[in-house]
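Researcher: Please generate the 3D structure of the following complex. Treat every line as part of one assembly.
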Amino acid sequence: MRREDIKQVQGLKVAALVSVGRHPVTGRPRRADFDARAVEMGLSLVAPENMSLLHAGECSPERESALRGYLGMGIGALDVLDQPPEADIVPALEARLREMGARLVLCGARGEMGEASGLVPFLLAERLGWSLVSGLAQIESVDGDSMTVLQALPRGQRRRLKVRLPAVVTVDAAAQAARQSAYGPARRGELRRIEGEVTPDAAARDWNTAPAKKRPKRLKIVKAASARDRFKAAAAKAEGGGGQVLTGLSPQAGAEAILKLLREEGVLR
Amino acid sequence: MNDIVRRDPRSEWIARNRLHPEHDAVLARMGGGAPAAQWMGPNGVIRRDPHAVGFIGPNGIRRIDRSGAQSAGAGGAARREAAAAPARRRVDIDTPAFFIAVVADMPGGRLSAHDRDLLGLARQLADAETDGAVLLVSFGDPRETGLGEAGVDRVLNFAGEQFEGYAPELRLTALGGVERQHAPRHWLFPDSPLGGAELGRRFAARLGERPATQVWQIADGRCTGRGAAGASDITRELPRIVLALPECAEPVADTVHAAEAIAPPAALPQALRRVEDLGAVAVDPAGVALAEAEFILSAGNGIHDWDGFHQAARVLGATEGASRVAVDNGFMPRHRQVGATGTWVTARVYLSAGISGAVQHLQGIQQCDKVVAINTDAGCDMVKRADLAVIADTGEVLAALVELVEGGRKEQRNAA
Amino acid sequence: MAQFDALFQPIQIGKLTIRNRIVSTAHAEVYATDGGMTTERYIKYYEEKAKGGLGLAICGGSSVVAIDSPQSWWSSVNLSTDRIIPHFQNLADAMHKHGAKIMIQITHMGRRSRWDGENWPHLVSPSGIREPVHRATCKTIEPEEIERIIGNYAQAARRAKEGGLDGVELSAVHQHLIDQFWSPRVNHRTDEWGGSFENRMRFGMEVLKAVRAEVGRDFVVGMRICGDEFHPDGLTHEDMKQIAKYYSDTGLLDFIGVIGSGCDTHNTLANVIPNMSYPPEPFLHLAAGIKEVVSVPVIHAQNIKDPNQAQRILEGGYVDLVGMTRAHIADPHFVNKIKLGQVDQIRQCVGANYCIDRQYQGLDVLCIQNAATSREHQGLPHIIEKSTGPKRKVVVVGGGPAGMEAARVAAERGHDVTLFEKNDALGGQISLAARAPQRDQMAGITRWYQLELARLKIDLRLGVAADAATIMDLRPDIVVLAVGGHPFIEQNPHWGAEEGLVVSSWDVLAGKVAPGKNVLVYDTICEFSGMSVADYLADKGAKVEIVTDDIKPGVAIGGTTFPTYYRSLYPKEVIMTGDLMLEKVYREGDKLVALLENEYTGAKEERVVDQIVIENGVRPDEALYYELKPGARNKGQVNIEELFAMQPQSSLAEAGEGYLLFRIGDCVSQHNTHGAILDALRLCKDF
Amino acid sequence: MLDVVLPILIFAALALALAGALRRIGLWRQGRAAPVQLLAGLAAMPRRYLVDLHHVVARDKVFANTHVATGGGFVLAALLLIAVHGFGLESRVLAWALLAATAVMFVGALRVAARRKDPPARLSRGPWMRLPKSLFAFSVSVFLVTLPAAGVLPAGFGGWALAAVLALVVAWGLGEMFFGMTWGGPMKHAFAGALHLAFHRRPERFGGGRSTGLKPLDLNDASAPLGVGKPVDFTWNQLLGFDACVQCGRCEAMCPAFAAGQPLNPKKLIQDMVVGLAGGTDAAYAGSPYPGMPVGEHGGDVHSPIVLREGRALVDADTLWSCTTCRACVEECPMMIEHVDAIVDMRRHLTMEHGNTPNKGGEVLENLAATDNPGGFDPASRMNWAADLDLPLISARGSAEVLLWLGDGAFDMRNQRTLRALVKVLRAAKVDFAVLGNDELDSGDVARRLGDEATFQSLAARNIATLAQYRFEHIVTCDPHSFHVLKNEYPALGGHYDVSHHSTYISQLMAAGRLALGQWSGGKVTYHDPCYLGRYNGEYEAPRNALKGIGIKVVEMERSGFRSRCCGGGGGAPITDIPGKQRIPDMRMAEINATGADIVAVGCPQCTAMLEGVVGERAEVLDIAELVAAQLAAAPAQRVKEEVTA
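Model: Done. Output below.
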């Protein structure tokens, strides 16, 4: 859908939480993909002026250029809650969100650096007492105190939900890709540093972090103890065994049997 | 039925006397007991039925005794048992010392492979100390029959329509009830977009517990999970709540458990319902990637009416797949090829139309839950693999399916 | 990302960089001549793969390091003499010229050989236990001999290095001497060479150390092991993981190759080179299991034949390199075709195992579908060049393997080709062969031709039985007859073929005749077709006995294929009976009676059945040939001196009116698929 | 009566023309400042006009003569008219000269009229259709009124009625020729064109020079606009240049996008810029429209955006993104207007301010920023293709005679064949060469053409820094885009190199006898000139010489050399992928097929990709390097291994 097609919602204040991402191939800092999609989703609802961007974390020059990537989407300013790397950013974000008065907070499903557990939106929603929906593909409409959204399910499926506002929502790869970030607005945009309280993340202090170990997907589990069975399990071709075979039926009767199974499995919509 | 027994004492006598020249012929004629393996033909040439040699011995194994001392009669009662699968060890835990709770996704009411891996993990945690029990918490209408084999000691099912579909707030309240009642030592959730990922995080936030997410390994009281979008591994003390990835452990294979149902907490506090499920939205099946399609209609050599096939896919809302032959013959594009040399698919239902089932193809559909075959050849490998096979003309069955579905939809519309 | 990017990621093995992840793994080529030297044919065979873009070839399966491990049975490479060094230099230069790397597998086969030839050695093994596949007896090896052989290994490795090869692979697979020491199944020693894990590992370790000491750190030394012996008293997967880790941890190894299954029984041997009845990559899980515990690159082969499959395996991170050995026998230009975006033009291995089954009979390795493979030295081309001569009208009659190949080659030469096939589909007897259970992959041969003939835009006329008039209407310059023949069931009139008492295997496989309930298959050929038709009938629920006048049914089927037939036939309780001749068939009521006579005693016996199927080979169809022969400029004659020398037929160059007539394949006399394709290629490549 | 009327008419016309000129200059000066040498430019103008411009015009011999007659006649006549009739200089000689001038002009006008009778589609109509009549009016009337002065007719001949009629006709002529020259009209080109030549933004082009590199933006100046969003963002001499357009449509006839039915017509684009500079709509435009877009719906003024995100303004974004930057329009323009500069300027605004690069544009730019190559490949895999070639890395040696610049074709399987062939040739000639390996980054070409000057400058700066670490004599590359950027666009950022296209280098190796080559025995071969090698860098001969060196006689296409047609692959066009009625490479392949060639020789990875992408019957596409490598006399097998370890 072209973003121009969506009606802008008047009077709605939207905030997007953004983080510094990491390019999967080169590891260079960038705007995080899911976060950028969240911003894009916000821009489908409101004009850039009514969209607040919020980042909690450090603001080194390298990270700054990544954060400017969000400004390059046409938004004038980004608030940076200055937080050291070992801080728990949730209290700071919560306080800031309460101050801002946003009714809708958009978040990428998870970050691309650090723990990236995807917990922040859940903790915020819990603390703020707001609605939460995850995995949004699209916000279809916002109407007063609620909004209608499409939630992405696995296997490309979609579900329509009605969500009471205020709400925190998370966005992942199912949502529309973020618009290109433009150099001019990114350069001009303002990074507003906000000093705030710092809560140390004590729990994470004892963690060991290492580069991810490659983990090939499981092949077959051959449990059999006997050599013959291990042999057979490897060399035999896939056979179900015990299936129902219907012969001598009319095509209609065959079709009915199939239809019954399709209905039972719930794949027929 | 006439229960008067007819007898032919002479034949019986010959049958008993294996040295009688007509012994085998009589046995063959009588048909009872072991069929004769050889007898004299009318032209004075020995006739043999090599298929009739031997009999099933007392161990259920074919036995040949050329001395004739033993014959079928002796082992007549023997059953074939050799084929039976090795029995699993039964484990019952009467009074659980503690619980490891697993909140399974159970798509369609059955355990997913991911769920089974989690149960395997739960089993490890439960078995680390005596009388630890695995508690499965499930929602909606359960259709799984193999919970005991999957390693479940106790099942706590929240049945009822209100738990179906997307009801995270209600489910959260329910889990809260379980927490108060049973206080499991650990809570395990599949970190999957099917629901576990969200429910687990909600629950952790509700309890104020810091969970470990994207966990793929638990060992020695520590767990390792992915961080930084899969780029790093974070190892830490095992927390109470764990959201684990597929293949975090091997599913239970050696034991079978009670899977005894226990009652859910009687009264749950009223959940605040801020999210309402308005139902599924139709999506274009052609837009769904073959590898992740839920429902695939796949075409092979047996398809002659290609328009009919495409129409069937459209009407059924299935993603289209194809066998290699259909692709090589130019009827389907290369990216639609299913199999070890094409795309591996994971559909919940794989409906194969006119595919005989080359070994590469069968390999590629290994992970499909239900395979349905339409084929004219009852002996083909696809039919052997299928959970349901209809032996009939593929085009006709598809046409009938289309008619049934469209007819049904029309009725619904008229009724509405 | 590019579709096949994982294949084209270079990899470092030791100090060596391999340009891609595709390997031709060690196999016995049966081409080393002059006492085991890598001579012209050997080099050209490998050079073609290098030209075709292969990353690494490990040549010389079971190449011997010592003279008491005979080399002559499989014409394998002999590294027991310095005489090999200049030959290796030629081989290495030929490979390196095209950017490929070349290593060789070196081994002492211990008990796994035959003693009754060459130097008539007393074979050695840890505990003198006989080897079943080669029916070999052996002595218990003495420590002095062990020391000698360790030295032989080191010298062999030195020769490989001096010959400019890039590395050696120690064979510790297929029950060669190293893994004979490993396996408690055959190592019952109580001295320092047996018993405990370390002791059983000792021989391999000493070999590795000696080799490393001889060649230094920069030369690649790898080891090929199995992933699970699949014997109750053999090494399990867990054992193999322990072994792999043990050697990998020494830091002396540069790579490990993993093969699923042991090899010292007929049944396990069939696993090693899985034929078309196996699923793709059946033993990948074993290789992946080894990779989990070692720190060096892991190579795995076994039923990896397709670029998508290879990409999936490498991308999944299961192993580091894929062996695509038979894939390269079928098409040595496999890699380049991927690079050129011609994946559909790859002649894909179908797993017929013609290659390996010939090898086990001591015959040179050939490909069922690619007649150019291993005939590079004779000038048979893999890539057919366009002719610079006149464009000709070529009419090919018959769409079996001979006809399809003839049409393909003539079209590649740039001629105007028409192909007639009387059936509605191409394939000829291949289509029949593919009807049998577990043999459906045979159709892959036809499928490739179909795609190629379509790409080459030949004029394909299916469902047309060409007669002389139709052919002449096209005003051909050349007519190639490849019409095949018919089942020879009329040979013995007492069989009653005319009265319809017996049917042919073709009738059954083609579905012209419904399977009976109680069937006797009489097979005089003892190859695939008889076993296939028996399997087909049994699969349809028939009670089947297959009888032959030969030693036993399927006796002519090679070592990696008969076991898979047996696995299919025994569970269906098909009876296999040898040494009985079918004398006569007669009707008795609604039954048929077959009168059989014992070849050796003359004793007669009968079978009462309801269907009798005869497999008695093919009788050529010659009518069309004799009709066309008088009008042909060359009177239908093929100059066999030129043909066998792979030279152009001189009749092509002779001027004159009218057409040339040639016939190839089964319509001359019965050959096999390879024979048909060879006839076509060697004749038509010069059109 | 005429002696009274004529001076009044003449001086009135001159005065009005002067006023118009001042107004016009005022319009141009709305543009941004530009570094121009005013006096030197003016001084050079006549030569630029008579030599450089005429050189272009003279490609159409007939029309060149027409223009000399008409234009030359007019300029002379106008000067004499002022002298004879304006100042009343009584000189028979002058009068006769004036007669002669008008006669020459008349002859020219006849030719102009003949051409306008059934004009080709590329010519604009509208006011241009009356131009021959105006020329007649001027020349005939001035001729007639001069007859008395020449003494052919008595003064006062014909009485007042005739005089009045003549005066009116003279007025018409003067109006068109003098007044129209500055107030807008067909003759505007003479005035603006002359000044355009004087103040041209690329004075290097005159005197046979070549200037094709895009000019850098100063990104350190935060106040400078990022490209051109409104007409005022152009420099004043760019605006002046637009005004010089004669609407001859030679650009249109050459434009591949126009021919393919994409919404671009360079002539219309320049006219739209004129609309933008003066304000109004394009309703008066009387030439071929942008294909598929009706005329009259676009308009704007100098301070309004040229492209709107929504709705219509002066031009649509698709028009700007249709350009392949092939420079065929620039090459063909008799007024030497710089279309490509203008288009890229406007693209810069769209990309850097709007973030609106169509289709895959955004993705490609993001890839370039994150991975330094447009495909998003792992930068560490740049040398994967050459794993078996053991290419010497310059980082390991510090210096080499030739630095082989691989370009992003290193990631592309097709181009890898070309690169391998080139390596083979270099090795056969025993050239001392090395590569940057994984230190090489994308040259920045595509980022720059897509308007992302920031990414371009970042890549360029890093490449220049890398190159600065090593010593080498030449850079050789098989990618004309890299070639152009390294040679013509890096100097402005401080990188100065001796760069050769591989065909140039190979032909030099051949000439030096360093290659033992066999002779071609294959089929017919034609050659496709890459835009960035040919028009951008004037290299037409070397590729042909290289082919000649292996015995290939090139069968030329109808459009070849400086008139070669683009393959459609330049300027990021395959990335932005603006739909048309047909595809540019299909048109090009049709031209290739028309020669009956079996093989088309190419010298550019883009061209190779585009031409090989043509579906259906087509000639085989082979790079010059591949053709030459195939003719290398079989070298003795060399042991490559030693070379590596060395």
